[in-house]
Amino acid sequence: MESLAAYGWTPQIAERFAGSDIHGSPGRIVRVARGCGEAVTSAGPLRVRPSGHHVCTGDWVIVREPATEGDTIGAVCAVLPRVGVIRRADASGRSEEQVLAANVDTVVVTVAADTALDPGRVERLLALAWDSGAQPVVALTKADLATEPVFNGISAVAPGASVVEVCAPNGSGLSELRDRIHGTVVFVGASGAGKSTLVNALCGREIQATAPVRQRDGKGRHTTTEREMFPLGDGLTLIDTPGLRGVGMWEAGAGIAAAFPEVDELAQHCRFTDCAHESEPGCAVRAAVEDGDLDARRVESHRKLRRENAWVAARSDARLRHERTREAKVMSRAIRAYYRDR
């Protein structure tokens, strides 16, 4: 299992595989592209077909070797239950979740210091990170351009998460960042925030293509187009991801609460357990805002994410009900046809 050890294989992972009765070799998905995945197994890298399984980068899987000598593609027989899942509402607008990475231990939210701070977006990313169960770390990239208000602004919207100022070109902050990450680490953030540059700097070589942001609007160029895993050594693996434009909530109630601990704590003292912190009497959250003890913008952001999360959940439930109704109608027609044709 030497080749798998570089990709996070541990005795605990081995125990999870030992409990399976499906024949095949253990492996980990390191890249997914164009309907095929790339897995690392004890025998080395292997291209695999999902074979009806939805796989994503970071998945631990059971794979079957190619059936014939001329075939170079294996098959995924099973996907182990995921932990540390980074997921969002599908960017297409369908009532479905999109898994960005699986079995993650640390989430590095990258924020560029040379762009205007969007606190709401940072809070969204942190909500996804907290919801996964992984440990969030905020990397303030391009630190040579950072100002004290930017750093303080990031710290104010990231309670409970470490904030590290880094500058990849000169190596500033890299050792501190490495000290704060462990296990499988995924980098998330907007295009142009410096995710791939950080991955290259931590790995000590150019393994990911990078490009400067567009001059006319300061936006990234989406140089990274796939989620890919790289071994760093000492049990660390890094997952680089494409820039995220949409960061929709998906069953992220626990993550939202963790991203706004001060709001969640005060909400325990509201008169009503389902208080929306708007016009209800006895609202402890609104009282704290009026007293100047709580940032009104944070409360509005918290409220917005909760509403969005509830709306997505309602749409998802409606879609499932529609699918079940349709399946029941199909079955009913089949039964009627059976008895009619007897």
From TrEMBL:
Residues 102-245 form the EngC GTPase domain. One of several proteins that assist in the late maturation steps of the functional core of the 30S ribosomal subunit. Helps release RbfA from mature subunits. May play a role in the assembly of ribosomal proteins into the subunit. Circularly permuted GTPase that catalyzes slow GTP hydrolysis, GTPase activity is stimulated by the 30S ribosomal subunit. Binds 1 zinc ion per subunit. It is an enzyme of class 3 (hydrolase). It comes from Rhodococcus zopfii. Belongs to the TRAFAC class YlqF/YawG GTPase family. RsgA subfamily. The keyword Nucleotide-binding applies. It is found in: Cytoplasm. This is Small ribosomal subunit biogenesis GTPase RsgA. It comes from the Bacteria. Its EC number is 3.6.1.-. PANTHER family: SMALL RIBOSOMAL SUBUNIT BIOGENESIS GTPASE RSGA. InterPro entries: G_CP_dom, P-loop_NTPase, Ribosome_biogen_GTPase_RsgA, RsgA_GTPase_dom. Zn(2+) binds at residues 270, 275, 277, 283. Its cofactor is Zn(2+). Monomer. Associates with 30S ribosomal subunit, binds 16S rRNA. Keywords: Cytoplasm, GTP-binding, Hydrolase, Metal-binding, Nucleotide-binding, Ribosome biogenesis, RNA-binding, rRNA-binding, Zinc. Residues 93-247 form the CP-type G domain. GTP binds at residues 141-144, 189-197. It holds the Pfam family RsgA_GTPase. The keyword Hydrolase applies. CDD domains: YjeQ_EngC (cd01854). Gene3D superfamilies: P-loop containing nucleotide triphosphate hydrolases (3.40.50.300), Probable gtpase engc, domain 3 (1.10.40.50). NCBIfam families: ribosome small subunit-dependent GTPase A.
